[in-house]
Design brief:
single chain; mainly alpha; 8 helices; globular
Amino acid sequence: MDKHIFEFNFAIFFSIIVGLYILLTFSVNYLFLTEGLYYQSFGEQLAVDRIEKMFGDFQKWQWIGYVFIPIVVIIRVSFTAVCLYIGCFLANSQVRFKNLFKVSLLADFVFVLAGITKLIILIFFKDVSKLDDLQFQPLSFLELFHRDSVDKLFFYPFSLINVFELLYWLVLAWLLSGLLKKPFENSLKRVASSYGTGLLLWVLFVMFLTVNLT
């Protein structure tokens, strides 16, 4: 792998990633989150004035979602970088956290592809009649089941078992192998033992919150 791949301008690439996330979020909001969808979702449960207020509040405060996008990206990339750094430290591999952060940021583009795939499916292949229809996870284990048949406790872990998460692991391993000058198989094991462990702990934490808040 060309070492210059890690010499990209961080600010520019980060801006591109965040810009694409914002564009995808705006597209979903503009195309699908309409007043009609709110009526279809809550028409049998709430009064008309209540639905109008809910939709009005969404329109008023949706900008907050855009503001949080760069924060979410930073947190997710930092989480992965920290996991990889701990794994490298325990394996006595000398590597700068800055470089692992770049590896994580580059790999995050996989989730942009996931968002693009989801948008394409929503536009051309999926009937969106309720808000819940927007929660689907493309190419995930969760989509093999009807949502009513899955306990809410397993929604998140089932949604994480998907093609894009697998691709993310592979891209992380490929980039890490280039950074550490190690075989791909060795780097994949490093990703599994570090990021994989961190992800497992996070999933268990989310499941714990689900049990206690529902």
